[in-house]
From TrEMBL:
Origin superkingdom: Bacteria
Any one GO cellular component localisation term in the record: primosome complex
GO aspect biological process, one term: DNA replication, synthesis of primer
The name this protein goes by in its record: Replication restart protein PriB
Keywords of this entry: DNA replication, DNA-binding, Primosome
One Pfam family in the UniProt entry: SSB_1
Amino acid sequence: MTAAAAATGVNQLLLTASVAELGTLRFTPAGLPAIDLKLEHESTLQEAGKPRQVKTALKAVAFGAIAERLARQSMGSLWRFQGFLATPGNGKHPVLHIQDFQQD
């Protein structure tokens, strides 16, 4: 993939989920607020013309003002999260980097 192709690629995720685990607000070495969380989603969707029960859990992280807002939310609260997926350098699974969230 060329650098130009990589720059124009789409990596966006919109997910309605509840907060299953909420870490403690921490600060990066650069002093940026950060928080780790686990999100859980459950719904019924259509696949190949048939209903399918879907459940998933996903690790997520937020930085800056978004992290500070998330730190004040309660466990089990339902939100619509928007962000992008990235795999940490030392990890095997993608993590949702939350860029915004709002009440669902």
